[in-house]
User: Fold this.
Amino acid sequence: MSSSVEAITVLSSDGDEFKITVSAAKLSKPLNWMLEDVCFSDDCDEVPTIEVNSKTLVKVIEYCEKHAPRANSGASDSDAEELKKWDIEFMKMDVKDILFHILMAANYLHMEGLYDLACQTAADLMKGMTVSQIRKIFHIKNDFSSEEQEQLRRQHPGCSFD
Amino acid sequence: MRRLNDDIMLNILARLPAESFASAACVSKYWNHITSQILSRPKLASALSLNPSLLQAVKEVLDKVLGKPIRPHFAIAFINEEYGLRLTQTLITQRLKNKVPLVVHISHGVMGKDVLSDELREVQWDYFDYSGNHPRLRSVFGNSNEGVVLVLGFVPGLKVDTIPLFHPHQDPTVDHVDKFITDIQAFTAEASGHLSPSAIMMFGDRRSDMNSVVAKMDHAMPKETVMVGDAGGCFLFNSKNYPITTPNPYLLDAVALVFADDRDKSPDVGDIDFHLVLAEGLMPFGPSFEVIAAGMNPSQEWSVFSARMQGSHVVLSSNSVFETVLETVTDPNYELYIGVTQRRGAEESLIFYKLLVGQGFQFIVEGIGLAPGDSFMFYHTDMEATLTGRDTAYDNLDTLKEIVDENEYDVFGGLILSSNFRGRRYFGVENIDVMPFVENFPGVEVAGSFSKGEIGRGCSSFDAEDEEETIARSPLHVSSAIYFVMAYSPASAADD
Assistant:
């Protein structure tokens, strides 16, 4: 692998170009493979496309760049503390617009850390919420009939629906 | 908007605490489908807290067991505080809602995973109030809780409910034990369409004569019904269907948590099997004797009797018994029992009575029910016998594990009921009784209690040969440890 390559260019599904550093790309297996392909091939004209939209890819790359130093070298506990706080701030995002896409992107890009973080964030959003509040947060339509609804109420006596 | 795929949804919803998990199941058909995939197998969740504030301790164990997805079908809490019985019941009921069958039982100690350290602990109370009706004064000042263990179970394919046994003076015209058995059978028949419960967990009041109750149940219940429990505590309960409020715990002799097959279970739900492994701790000594006269004190707490050696006319003297004890018994702190074979009609039971005192030609034992003609042997607690019994239980659990592995069953939980005579006080170290389970089933949820009178009845399939013997069975043990093992065979395997 050529050590001169410090960053690669990728395309989002919307066709926008993004730069991602080599060390950051190593957080994702598919990106890492792409990286190796790019570095080993002689003609670097072809820019690989990542099936993630631009808005999401910005966030994914932001996450990668932040976490890359620690992932590659290991870090002290105080760094880990700081990173945790950063993660919490980072995940403050709209559920429908970004969080869903981050979940799918992290899953698709095999990014364990981000996937875990995003799943936990989604789960935390539901804690203490009623059924209809959860539907609202996650933009889900109630597709139960009124009879089924009644049955659910009996099955889950502890649930608050409204 | 694209829908999140199953993997992502499974990952997210599996992280929810039980209460949010229940809400998630009601969001949409798709979410409901995902939640049922997460909880497709039976599950046991348990936690132990040693927080000196009972209020805090109960909150801690509730938070722990409800921290992950579970749909509680039953709940059992073991506590030490007589004063805290009602409080514990209220706190748990508030969180679980009324509909979950619940037993809160004051026992002599608890076993389980500590919420703070995540380590398995066996804890026996420093002090236990045998006196009865008076709440301990120091309880009033709070902070005297010694421990709580809470067990929640999710058992799809079974119907579970609590069924009480009332004290006879409620209605002296009815034989209360017969009614109790009928109630259990009625519940089972309605749930399963047959009369054999899969298992019965029994919790007895220490002031009641559980020997006769358990013996009667032993004969009334089919052989395949596993029975387990603590005969000597004090309890409160909630019931799902039984329309009853319990104003006073002392009107109750016992409560049974009954597990019956659900005849409406869906075909993709597998079968839950209960197994029982016993670690005995008593050693018989001397020849067989025969009761020649017996009576009891007016409040029916103890019996006095005289006996003679079988086939002899010489009345047994306490001196000769205690001489033998001096020669035979090696434990520094031993207890003496008589194991009585009682024939009542066509039925035969082995019942243990603790020997309290012997003077001249009379002996006094705890409990009632002795009759002239009963034959018995003396027993003593014995370290060597106890350790051998534990090794045997270890081997039997190992055999069970082999069977389970061979059939691709899945052991999902265990409950241990160990005599308060055992534990750290007897062995000198903690966790002697939990280890046989933990080593054979590492990682499997396990909790338990120290009891006075361990109910254990029913054999695992592997020691079927033993059942052929016609010797009297004892469903109520002393100085023993009982391992109640819950296994699941998934639907595909169960079809063969």
About this structure: The CA atoms of residues 24 and 68 of chain A lie 5 Å apart. Helices of chain A lie at 22-25, 29-40, 54-73, 77-90, 95-108, 112-126, 131-138, 146-155. Chain A has one domain: 7-127. The mean pLDDT of chain A is 85.
